[in-house]
From TrEMBL:
Belongs to the SIMIBI class G3E GTPase family. ArgK/MeaB subfamily. The keyword Nucleotide-binding applies. Keywords: Chaperone, GTP-binding, Hydrolase, Nucleotide-binding. It holds the Pfam family MeaB. This is Methylmalonyl Co-A mutase-associated GTPase MeaB. It comes from the Bacteria. The keyword Chaperone applies. It comes from Metallumcola ferriviriculae. One of its GO terms (molecular function) is GTPase activity. NCBIfam families: lao. InterPro entries: GTPase/Isobutyryl-CoA_mutase, GTPase_ArgK, P-loop_NTPase. PANTHER family: LAO_AO TRANSPORT SYSTEM ATPASE, LYSINE/ARGININE/ORNITHINE TRANSPORT SYSTEM KINASE. CDD domains: MMAA-like (cd03114). SUPFAM superfamilies: P-loop containing nucleoside triphosphate hydrolases.
Length: 317
Protein backbone atom coordinates (compact mmCIF):
# COMPACT_ATOMS: atom_id res chain seq x y z
CA UNK A 1 0.00 0.00 0.00
CA UNK A 2 1.60 3.24 -1.18
CA UNK A 3 0.54 5.51 1.67
CA UNK A 4 1.85 2.97 4.20
CA UNK A 5 5.14 2.68 2.30
CA UNK A 6 5.48 6.47 2.16
CA UNK A 7 4.71 6.79 5.87
CA UNK A 8 7.28 4.16 6.80
CA UNK A 9 9.79 6.02 4.65
CA UNK A 10 9.31 9.14 6.76
CA UNK A 11 6.91 11.14 4.59
CA UNK A 12 5.10 13.63 6.86
CA UNK A 13 2.29 14.22 4.38
CA UNK A 14 1.64 10.50 4.26
CA UNK A 15 1.54 10.48 8.07
CA UNK A 16 -1.03 13.28 8.10
CA UNK A 17 -3.12 11.53 5.45
CA UNK A 18 -2.97 8.22 7.32
CA UNK A 19 -4.35 9.80 10.50
CA UNK A 20 -7.10 11.45 8.46
CA UNK A 21 -7.99 8.05 7.00
CA UNK A 22 -8.40 6.42 10.42
CA UNK A 23 -10.21 9.43 11.86
CA UNK A 24 -12.73 9.53 9.01
CA UNK A 25 -13.25 5.75 8.86
CA UNK A 26 -12.25 5.75 5.19
CA UNK A 27 -12.69 2.48 3.25
CA UNK A 28 -8.92 1.93 3.05
CA UNK A 29 -8.47 2.17 6.83
CA UNK A 30 -8.38 -1.58 7.46
CA UNK A 31 -5.77 -2.19 4.78
CA UNK A 32 -3.66 0.72 6.04
CA UNK A 33 -3.69 -0.43 9.67
CA UNK A 34 -2.92 -3.99 8.61
CA UNK A 35 0.15 -2.76 6.72
CA UNK A 36 1.35 -0.63 9.63
CA UNK A 37 0.62 -3.02 12.50
CA UNK A 38 3.89 -5.05 12.22
CA UNK A 39 5.80 -1.80 12.71
CA UNK A 40 4.08 -0.79 15.97
CA UNK A 41 4.94 -1.44 19.60
CA UNK A 42 8.16 0.57 19.79
CA UNK A 43 7.03 4.04 20.88
CA UNK A 44 6.48 4.91 24.52
CA UNK A 45 3.02 6.41 25.02
CA UNK A 46 2.53 9.02 27.75
CA UNK A 47 -0.94 10.24 28.66
CA UNK A 48 -1.31 13.79 29.97
CA UNK A 49 -4.61 14.45 31.71
CA UNK A 50 -5.95 16.95 34.20
CA UNK A 51 -8.79 19.35 34.81
CA UNK A 52 -9.45 22.23 32.38
CA UNK A 53 -7.13 25.13 33.11
CA UNK A 54 -4.42 22.95 34.61
CA UNK A 55 -2.04 24.00 31.85
CA UNK A 56 -1.86 20.63 30.05
CA UNK A 57 -1.24 22.14 26.62
CA UNK A 58 1.55 24.38 27.89
CA UNK A 59 3.09 21.45 29.73
CA UNK A 60 2.96 19.23 26.64
CA UNK A 61 4.48 22.03 24.57
CA UNK A 62 7.41 22.64 26.93
CA UNK A 63 7.92 18.94 27.72
CA UNK A 64 8.16 18.22 24.00
CA UNK A 65 10.70 21.00 23.63
CA UNK A 66 12.74 19.56 26.48
CA UNK A 67 12.64 15.98 25.15
CA UNK A 68 13.82 17.21 21.75
CA UNK A 69 16.67 19.36 23.06
CA UNK A 70 17.89 17.21 25.95
CA UNK A 71 17.43 13.72 24.49
CA UNK A 72 17.02 14.16 20.74
CA UNK A 73 13.98 11.88 20.63
CA UNK A 74 11.23 12.27 18.06
CA UNK A 75 7.81 13.12 19.48
CA UNK A 76 4.26 12.62 18.28
CA UNK A 77 1.49 14.64 19.94
CA UNK A 78 -2.21 13.87 19.88
CA UNK A 79 -4.29 16.64 21.46
CA UNK A 80 -7.77 15.31 22.11
CA UNK A 81 -10.24 18.18 21.94
CA UNK A 82 -14.02 18.36 22.29
CA UNK A 83 -15.83 17.61 19.04
CA UNK A 84 -17.55 20.44 17.22
CA UNK A 85 -21.31 19.78 16.97
CA UNK A 86 -21.27 21.38 13.52
CA UNK A 87 -18.20 20.06 11.70
CA UNK A 88 -17.58 16.90 13.72
CA UNK A 89 -13.94 17.94 14.02
CA UNK A 90 -11.85 19.08 16.96
CA UNK A 91 -12.87 22.48 18.31
CA UNK A 92 -9.23 23.45 18.80
CA UNK A 93 -6.86 23.03 15.89
CA UNK A 94 -3.15 22.46 15.47
CA UNK A 95 -2.52 26.02 14.29
CA UNK A 96 -3.34 27.72 17.60
CA UNK A 97 -1.18 25.49 19.78
CA UNK A 98 2.51 24.64 19.94
CA UNK A 99 3.62 26.87 17.07
CA UNK A 100 7.29 26.54 17.99
CA UNK A 101 7.31 22.94 16.76
CA UNK A 102 5.87 23.55 13.29
CA UNK A 103 9.27 23.55 11.57
CA UNK A 104 10.71 20.71 13.65
CA UNK A 105 10.78 17.53 11.54
CA UNK A 106 11.11 15.50 14.74
CA UNK A 107 7.71 16.59 16.04
CA UNK A 108 4.28 15.81 14.63
CA UNK A 109 1.14 17.36 16.17
CA UNK A 110 -2.46 16.39 15.53
CA UNK A 111 -5.68 17.59 17.18
CA UNK A 112 -8.49 15.04 17.24
CA UNK A 113 -12.09 15.23 18.43
CA UNK A 114 -13.59 12.95 21.05
CA UNK A 115 -16.36 12.05 18.58
CA UNK A 116 -18.77 11.53 21.47
CA UNK A 117 -16.66 8.81 23.06
CA UNK A 118 -17.57 8.48 26.73
CA UNK A 119 -13.98 7.71 27.56
CA UNK A 120 -12.80 10.92 25.99
CA UNK A 121 -10.56 8.85 23.70
CA UNK A 122 -12.29 7.62 20.57
CA UNK A 123 -11.15 4.45 18.85
CA UNK A 124 -9.74 6.67 16.10
CA UNK A 125 -7.43 8.26 18.68
CA UNK A 126 -6.05 4.88 19.67
CA UNK A 127 -5.57 4.01 16.00
CA UNK A 128 -3.78 7.33 15.44
CA UNK A 129 -1.38 6.33 18.22
CA UNK A 130 -0.55 3.21 16.20
CA UNK A 131 0.01 5.31 13.07
CA UNK A 132 2.44 7.60 14.92
CA UNK A 133 4.13 4.55 16.45
CA UNK A 134 4.63 2.96 13.03
CA UNK A 135 6.00 6.25 11.67
CA UNK A 136 8.96 5.88 14.02
CA UNK A 137 8.13 8.34 16.78
CA UNK A 138 10.08 7.55 19.98
CA UNK A 139 7.62 9.20 22.36
CA UNK A 140 3.90 9.83 21.88
CA UNK A 141 2.16 12.36 24.13
CA UNK A 142 -1.63 12.13 24.34
CA UNK A 143 -3.29 15.16 25.91
CA UNK A 144 -6.88 14.50 26.96
CA UNK A 145 -9.84 16.88 27.27
CA UNK A 146 -10.00 16.88 31.07
CA UNK A 147 -10.30 14.80 34.18
CA UNK A 148 -13.34 12.96 35.51
CA UNK A 149 -14.88 9.52 35.50
CA UNK A 150 -15.22 9.70 31.71
CA UNK A 151 -11.51 10.41 31.29
CA UNK A 152 -10.23 7.20 32.86
CA UNK A 153 -9.97 5.71 29.39
CA UNK A 154 -6.48 7.20 29.03
CA UNK A 155 -5.10 4.35 31.14
CA UNK A 156 -6.19 1.96 28.38
CA UNK A 157 -4.08 3.78 25.80
CA UNK A 158 -0.97 5.07 27.60
CA UNK A 159 2.00 3.25 29.08
CA UNK A 160 2.43 5.99 31.70
CA UNK A 161 -0.20 8.51 32.75
CA UNK A 162 0.64 11.95 34.12
CA UNK A 163 -2.13 13.70 36.06
CA UNK A 164 -1.66 17.47 36.03
CA UNK A 165 -2.85 19.36 39.12
CA UNK A 166 -2.75 23.04 39.95
CA UNK A 167 -2.93 24.95 43.24
CA UNK A 168 -6.15 26.81 43.85
CA UNK A 169 -8.21 24.52 41.62
CA UNK A 170 -10.66 23.56 44.36
CA UNK A 171 -10.69 20.67 46.79
CA UNK A 172 -7.82 18.47 45.63
CA UNK A 173 -8.96 15.62 47.86
CA UNK A 174 -12.33 15.43 46.11
CA UNK A 175 -10.58 15.47 42.74
CA UNK A 176 -8.38 12.56 43.76
CA UNK A 177 -11.37 10.62 45.07
CA UNK A 178 -12.95 10.77 41.59
CA UNK A 179 -10.80 7.87 40.42
CA UNK A 180 -7.72 9.87 39.48
CA UNK A 181 -5.55 8.18 42.11
CA UNK A 182 -5.96 4.89 40.28
CA UNK A 183 -4.85 6.12 36.87
CA UNK A 184 -1.95 8.38 37.91
CA UNK A 185 1.56 7.02 37.49
CA UNK A 186 3.05 10.48 38.01
CA UNK A 187 1.52 13.63 39.48
CA UNK A 188 2.68 16.96 38.05
CA UNK A 189 1.83 20.00 40.19
CA UNK A 190 1.87 22.65 37.48
CA UNK A 191 2.10 26.39 38.17
CA UNK A 192 4.13 25.44 41.22
CA UNK A 193 5.22 29.04 41.64
CA UNK A 194 1.71 29.98 42.78
CA UNK A 195 0.58 30.16 46.38
CA UNK A 196 -0.75 26.85 47.64
CA UNK A 197 1.46 24.65 45.46
CA UNK A 198 3.27 23.14 48.45
CA UNK A 199 -0.05 22.38 50.12
CA UNK A 200 -1.34 20.69 46.98
CA UNK A 201 1.75 18.47 46.80
CA UNK A 202 1.48 17.67 50.51
CA UNK A 203 -2.19 16.67 50.19
CA UNK A 204 -1.43 14.37 47.25
CA UNK A 205 1.40 12.68 49.15
CA UNK A 206 -0.86 12.27 52.19
CA UNK A 207 -3.44 10.51 50.01
CA UNK A 208 -0.72 8.26 48.60
CA UNK A 209 0.36 7.34 52.14
CA UNK A 210 -3.09 5.81 52.70
CA UNK A 211 -2.69 3.42 49.76
CA UNK A 212 -0.21 0.93 51.17
CA UNK A 213 -1.12 -1.89 48.78
CA UNK A 214 0.07 -0.07 45.69
CA UNK A 215 3.38 -1.41 44.37
CA UNK A 216 4.29 1.75 42.45
CA UNK A 217 4.07 5.00 44.39
CA UNK A 218 3.47 7.87 41.94
CA UNK A 219 6.02 10.64 42.42
CA UNK A 220 4.72 14.18 42.88
CA UNK A 221 6.71 16.59 40.73
CA UNK A 222 6.44 20.42 40.99
CA UNK A 223 6.56 22.03 37.55
CA UNK A 224 6.36 25.56 36.17
CA UNK A 225 5.92 24.89 32.48
CA UNK A 226 5.95 28.55 31.45
CA UNK A 227 9.41 28.94 33.01
CA UNK A 228 10.69 25.51 31.93
CA UNK A 229 11.15 24.57 35.59
CA UNK A 230 10.96 20.93 36.66
CA UNK A 231 10.58 19.54 33.15
CA UNK A 232 13.55 17.18 33.39
CA UNK A 233 12.41 16.06 36.85
CA UNK A 234 9.03 15.22 35.32
CA UNK A 235 10.51 13.35 32.36
CA UNK A 236 12.89 11.42 34.61
CA UNK A 237 9.96 10.47 36.86
CA UNK A 238 8.13 9.10 33.82
CA UNK A 239 11.25 7.17 32.78
CA UNK A 240 11.56 5.68 36.27
CA UNK A 241 8.01 4.42 35.90
CA UNK A 242 8.98 2.94 32.53
CA UNK A 243 11.96 1.21 34.13
CA UNK A 244 9.68 -0.15 36.85
CA UNK A 245 7.26 -1.53 34.24
CA UNK A 246 10.14 -3.05 32.26
CA UNK A 247 11.79 -4.66 35.29
CA UNK A 248 8.56 -6.21 36.57
CA UNK A 249 7.28 -7.33 33.17
CA UNK A 250 4.18 -5.19 33.67
CA UNK A 251 4.77 -3.18 30.50
CA UNK A 252 4.51 -6.30 28.35
CA UNK A 253 1.51 -7.53 30.35
CA UNK A 254 -0.33 -4.20 30.10
CA UNK A 255 0.28 -3.88 26.38
CA UNK A 256 -0.89 -7.44 25.75
CA UNK A 257 -4.03 -6.85 27.82
CA UNK A 258 -4.75 -3.64 25.88
CA UNK A 259 -4.46 -5.50 22.60
CA UNK A 260 -6.87 -8.18 23.80
CA UNK A 261 -9.31 -5.51 24.95
CA UNK A 262 -8.97 -3.73 21.63
CA UNK A 263 -9.95 -6.86 19.71
CA UNK A 264 -13.07 -7.21 21.87
CA UNK A 265 -13.82 -3.50 21.39
CA UNK A 266 -13.56 -3.78 17.60
CA UNK A 267 -15.75 -6.90 17.56
CA UNK A 268 -18.42 -5.14 19.61
CA UNK A 269 -18.25 -2.07 17.38
CA UNK A 270 -18.68 -4.16 14.25
CA UNK A 271 -21.58 -6.03 15.83
CA UNK A 272 -23.21 -2.69 16.64
CA UNK A 273 -22.76 -1.62 13.02
CA UNK A 274 -24.32 -4.85 11.73
CA UNK A 275 -27.20 -4.65 14.15
CA UNK A 276 -27.68 -0.99 13.27
CA UNK A 277 -28.13 -1.93 9.62
CA UNK A 278 -30.87 -4.34 10.63
CA UNK A 279 -32.94 -1.48 12.00
CA UNK A 280 -33.30 -0.38 8.39
CA UNK A 281 -33.26 -3.67 6.52
CA UNK A 282 -34.95 -6.33 8.62
CA UNK A 283 -38.62 -6.30 9.46
CA UNK A 284 -38.02 -9.34 11.66
CA UNK A 285 -35.56 -7.34 13.73
CA UNK A 286 -38.18 -4.66 14.24
CA UNK A 287 -40.70 -7.33 15.20
CA UNK A 288 -38.35 -8.62 17.89
CA UNK A 289 -38.00 -5.10 19.27
CA UNK A 290 -41.75 -4.64 19.16
CA UNK A 291 -42.18 -7.73 21.33
CA UNK A 292 -39.86 -6.16 23.90
CA UNK A 293 -41.88 -2.94 23.83
CA UNK A 294 -45.11 -4.93 24.32
CA UNK A 295 -43.55 -6.84 27.24
CA UNK A 296 -43.93 -10.14 25.38
CA UNK A 297 -40.21 -10.91 25.80
CA UNK A 298 -37.49 -9.25 27.87
CA UNK A 299 -34.41 -7.48 26.43
CA UNK A 300 -32.10 -10.37 27.36
CA UNK A 301 -34.25 -12.89 25.51
CA UNK A 302 -34.43 -10.54 22.54
CA UNK A 303 -30.64 -10.15 22.47
CA UNK A 304 -30.22 -13.95 22.56
CA UNK A 305 -32.53 -14.27 19.55
CA UNK A 306 -30.68 -11.59 17.59
CA UNK A 307 -27.19 -12.92 18.36
CA UNK A 308 -28.17 -16.52 17.61
CA UNK A 309 -29.54 -15.59 14.20
CA UNK A 310 -26.48 -13.48 13.43
CA UNK A 311 -24.13 -16.37 14.29
CA UNK A 312 -26.17 -18.86 12.26
CA UNK A 313 -26.35 -16.49 9.31
CA UNK A 314 -30.10 -16.10 9.64
CA UNK A 315 -32.15 -13.11 8.65
CA UNK A 316 -30.47 -10.93 11.30
CA UNK A 317 -26.90 -10.90 9.95
Amino acid sequence: MKIADDLLAGNRRALARAITIVENEAPEKKELLAALYPHTGRAYVIGITGSPGAGKSSLVDRLTQHIRKAYGLSVGIIAVDPTSPFSGGALLGDRIRMQDHVLDEGVFIRSMGTRGSLGGLSRATKEAIKVLDASGKDVILVETVGVGQSELDIMNAADSTVVVLTPGAGDIIQTLKAGIMEIADVFAVNKADLEGADRTATEVRAMLDLDRERQWRPPVVPVVSLHNTGLDDLYQAIMRHKEYLDSTGFLTDYRQQRLKSEVVEVVLERLKQRIGREFKDSGEFEQTLEKVINREIDPYHASDIILERMVRGGSVS
